Amino acid sequence: MERLTVKDAAPYIGASEYKLRELVRDKKIPAYRIGNKIMFRKSSLDEWIANQEARNSVGCPSSEA
């Protein structure tokens, strides 16, 4: 199981460290703590990204003419 810190996870998902901490605080992204350190499972982030892509692509017009 690959684990990422906020510093590593932020560029992985394409967000700032501040925004990532905000998502954690609002419980909008899967994370866990070890003491005061926020950690992420890479597999959980991959799943979260896939869900965000699916959620945001609903209702997008197709490219068919």
Description:
- This protein starts with a strand and ends in an 8-residue tail after the last helix.
- It is globular, with a radius of gyration of 14 Å.
- It has a three-stranded antiparallel beta sheet.
- It is of the alpha+beta class and 65 residues long.
- The longest helix has 16 residues, at 42-57.
- Helix 1 crosses helix 2.
- Helix content is 51%, strand content 17%.
Our measurement of the CA-to-CA distance between the termini, rounded to an integer number of angstroms, reads 44 Å
Shape: globular
Per DSSP, what share of the residues sits in E-state strands of 2 or more residues?
15-25%
- In quaternary terms, these chains amount to single chain
The SSE order reads EHHEEH
How would you describe this structure in keywords?
65 residues; 3 helices; 3 strands
